[in-house]
Specification:
- The structure is a single chain.
- With 414 residues, the protein is α+β, with helices and mostly antiparallel strands.
- It folds into three domains: 211 residues, Rossmann fold (3-Layer(aba) Sandwich), CATH 3.40.50.300; 83 residues, Beta Barrel (Elongation Factor Tu (Ef-tu), domain 3), CATH 2.40.30; 105 residues, Elongation Factor Tu (Ef-tu), domain 3, CATH 2.40.30.10.
- Helix content is 17%, strand content 34%.
- The chain is built from seven helices and 23 strands.
- Strands 7, 8, 9, 11, 12, 13, 15 and 16 form an eight-stranded antiparallel β-sheet that branches. Strands 2-3-1-4-5-6 form a six-stranded mixed β-sheet, with helices on both faces.
- It starts with a strand and ends with a strand.
């Protein structure tokens, strides 16, 4: 079955964790022992019934404060599709956690409290989802039960958010009025919103078209490992293992290996289940070439007439994760992009972006924890990259502290 990854985002107490719990509960995805533990935990908190938010808020600090701090992943499936949910926190100080959870998402759910409407946090999450290239957005107007399922409230929030989204690069935007607490329009259509003509949230998640979101034009295969068995039975075998980042590879295709520039053809494509004739993303395969070339980890196999950008100067948007020291021009870090490691120098910090107002502060000289800005990097070895909006796999990277091995930033190449 097709896999859909989606992330939830929203302000504090907008009901993100409750929504996920309702999705799992109403779609019969929770085991009996988990339900018993959930009822017991709810009782210990002095609450009645079941607090569905506790299904995802697993940290003690999260349960004590009633907020989401870390990214919680949950897995479930329906007869139509498999899902991976990333429950991301709403606090400003946990922006890096949201970036982590949404970086691989096909769809983002942005929750809004119907009583409060669109607030600063709502705009920030929408911008981050757009920045991270999430192709599908769903605005979930939650807690409609607290405004008596008023259509006018829903339409006002819908209109305001649509005006803001027009400033962003949002390809697909949908709106759903709901009550996660009571299950209205989450798994099934609700009789409380007869004026709503759309589908339930789960139905939309099952039906949203994501196959065309994958880049099947630009062939990119970063080499992760060279397989060269030493036994007598396979002494002629030389394969290059990795995950297809984009494009389609078939046996007999002409390819070029970067950075050497040597050309060859695909002799065979092997998988754990045996040889195949074609490999597409996100398959993990081993490609054998007709010629014996010098290929190592970090190299890239692509098409001769469709190659990525090859440069040591990189313009990118950065989200800074570092707690100890801020990013400044002149900083030196290790950089990992696809399977390639190199070192990078921050040549220039162009501006710091206020994600709430979209204002660019060009006088900024540093980026602190959770701040976002545009930078120019100089790497010690050329990167094989594409624009992030065209190819999320080859257009993204991380910066790492070489001394502590801490991940300091996530970057999106422009």
């Amino acid at each position: 079955m097709e896999l859909l990854r989606f992330a939830t985002a929203g302000s504090v107490d907008d009901g993100k964790s409750t929504l996920i719990g309702r999705l799992l509960y109403d779609s019969k995805q929770i085991f009996e022992d988990t339900l018993e533990a959930l009822e017991h935990s709810t009782m210990l908190r002095g609450e009645e019934g079941m607090n569905l938010a506790l299904l995802t808020d697993g940290l003690r600090a999260e349960r004590e404060q009633g907020i989401t701090i870390d990214v919680a992943y949950r897995y479930f499936a329906t007869p139509r599709r498999k899902f991976i949910i990333a429950d991301t926190p709403g606090h400003v100080q946990y922006t890096r956690n949201m970036v982590t959870g949404a970086s691989t998402a096909d769809l983002a759910l942005i929750l809004v409290d119907a009583r409060k409407g669109i607030i600063e946090q709502s705009r920030r999450h929408a911008f981050l989802a757009s920045l991270l290239g999430v192709p599908h957005l769903v605005l979930c107007v939650n807690k409609m039960d607290l405004v008596d399922y008023d259509e006018a409230v829903f339409e006002r929030i819908k209109s305001e958010f649509r005006d803001f989204a027009a400033k962003l690069d949002v390809r697909d935007l949908q709106f759903v009025p709901m009550s996660a607490l009571h299950g209205d329009n989450v798994v099934d259509r609700s009789a409380n919103t007869p004026w709503y003509e759309g589908t339930s949230l789960l139905h939309h998640l099952e039906e949203v078209h994501i196959a065309s979101d994958r880049n099947l034009i630009d062939c990119r295969f970063p080499v992760q490992y060279v397989i060269r068995p030493r036994d007598d039975n396979h002494h002629d075998y030389r394969g290059y293992a990795g995950q297809v980042a984009s494009g389609s590879y078939k046996v007999g295709d002409d390819v070029v290996v970067l950075p050497s520039g040597f050309t060859s053809t695909v002799a065979s494509i092997d998988t754990a289940d045996g040889p195949v004739e074609e490999a597409v993303p996100p398959m993990s395969v081993t490609i054998r070439l007709a010629d014996d070339l010098d290929v190592s980890r970090g190299d890239m196999i692509c098409r001769p007439h469709n190659q990525p950008n090859i440069s040591q100067d990189v313009d990118a948007m950065l989200c800074w994760f570092g707690e100890r020291v801020p990013l400044k021009a002149g900083g030196k870090y290790a950089l990992k992009q696809t399977s390639k490691w190199t070192r990078a120098l921050v040549k220039d910090l162009h501006y710091r972006l206020d994600v709430n107002t979209l204002h660019r502060d060009e006088r900024a000289d540093s980026l602190s924890l959770n701040e976002i800005g545009r930078v120019t990097l100089r790497t010690t070895a050329p990167l094989f990259s594409d624009d992030y909006r065209r190819n999320r796999a080859t257009g993204s990277f991380i910066l790492v502290d070489e001394a502590r091995n801490d991940t300091l930033a996530a970057g999106m190449i422009l």
